[in-house]
């Protein structure tokens, strides 16, 4: 059994497994992996790590071409930097954080290809934190200047404030064992003869009062070395763990190649940290097992039919709804069976056997043989082939089922983006996760806070009450919800509503009728989750994220019923200029108008100026009262208006960047994700432009064309710049009255050769003039004509073709299926915007 060096009395933590309550045990590892350059290699490495206890793994020499900040499909957070900017991508450091430790991460900063720092909070120890600095030192062949640059980078990393500090990694140094009793930072169980790099490391350790921990624990000789030379004859200890708090360390040991077999010439070095929380209870972060569950629709329908779903009118709306959700949830759980996580099926058994064979060969010391090298190359090719084969299999199955290929690509992706840093409203950048949560909370609370006072219009109380909801309406609304959509806070999916059948439809119709008559809804509907989808631009700016609200599917069925009832009134209220989210209209209508206008003005030498107006966060900024007033103005039954007011009053949402959700209050805007939201927003903008009372514009057959709207995409026409400027000032002023803000930096204008060159300004700010503009996905230009658009269409067609090329070139795929894929994927990309 390993024991502590008796010459180090300050190391007072007992060895071995500590089962005392009141202690927190953390396993922290360091490993030079030699390469994790692809996601498939990283996925295999994660599977290897499942064999050992390792809460946090610092890795180096990853050789990644790009940095990775992602949550893996198996639950781990992957925080890896990129290698150096050279052919071999030298270096690359980062961390792999297991799911149960992810909530403790405060910040992660990849400072360079050689140094990274991770800061975690020690749960139940107040504000005490632990900082882990991962290091990859230059090889012995590097110049001394490069080594000194490394230590300067480590010094910079040490400036991150924390209670405890660990510095670990591949130092390419040999420190050996203690030379005399004055070297308290070293134990007696080091390996090898100290070299110059070892002297430099000891100097650094003495400067910061660090102890080199893997020299304090007695092990067998074969459990001390961390690196083996290519000829397998030289074994050295060049990976170390340093700390300013040695009392926390219960053990430091090397994990053998028979356990972690990755093809690296380094062995994994693992530390066991034990923190005494005294009177506080020991905290365990249970890792959620990411197991997929298969839903049995027939069994679920049988259970729903046998359940008592009748509404209890004596209960409150909230209590009755919670009871319904509980019964649906219990039926879902009982009719679902666990299946193996999908990522385990990516690698075939043949590849697994090949990796086991490599591990045996390495344990036998045959790493220098030609057979070993050939096997390593074969494994790399096999893993790549298996991963691609798995992807093609999933795409082929999707093609045969006629489902979205993009959805399948998302499902088989091993990771999703999480921001590694954010900027506040002053542009100050931070990697601290607590601070990032604060920035996110402030940004969205400011965004959703009401800034314009809009009085509610007088209600018409003489209108007839709305009729009860029929179960046929519920059935129709549920069928309109697309399958595969994400659930809300109640975790009820569209498939659960569809499979419930007539018993569930009747139960929902009862409750929906009550909500309509009482003009009240369950409190649970006012709570939601919001995800952030990256658009374009700087990923560290929250302006470049689109918030999508994940609402209850029962709520969406209810609003779909309301929309189905009032859609006729809404469409009748909208003019021809508004084509967004309307039946019988599409982007093609407006594209045809704009292109015909530009061509005819050029043909008849008519001056033409066009402005493309952009609103900042339009859907999230419009005032609720402005939307309700627009509905009343255009004849929507006041009962529906009051009901929608109730639906949008007192709502909250949570945005989960990492682990602790940001709580956001919603006081304005329409929910992006709600079925009725696009219609309500379009109606509000229609009312705004109708109030402008514009004259002028471009005369066509006795009518004046001044603007076109497609939801919030607005284009304004004029004969000259002065007229255009006047037309831009008016909506800019009117928009602010209902909460909308014109984004002047993204608003552009252009003119043809028959209109004189001029400057357009709004509130003293110059609007940028452009030669071409992409409007509704179509390239418009007075100078290039259609040539620019033709180039875009060709690029889009080839991009679409390349995404499905393996399927189209698959000889085993039926020709009819290939034709269907080609016509549904490539042809729309080629012919978008074409009149044919």
From TrEMBL:
All copies of domain Reverse transcriptase, residue ranges: 514-780
Pfam families: Exo_endo_phos, RVT_1
UniProt source species: Haemonchus contortus (Barber pole worm)
Tree of life domain: Eukaryota
GO MF, one example: catalytic activity
Family annotation (InterPro entries): DNA/RNA_pol_sf, Endo/exonu/phosph_ase_sf, Endo/exonuclease/phosphatase, RT_dom
Protein name in the entry: Reverse transcriptase domain-containing protein
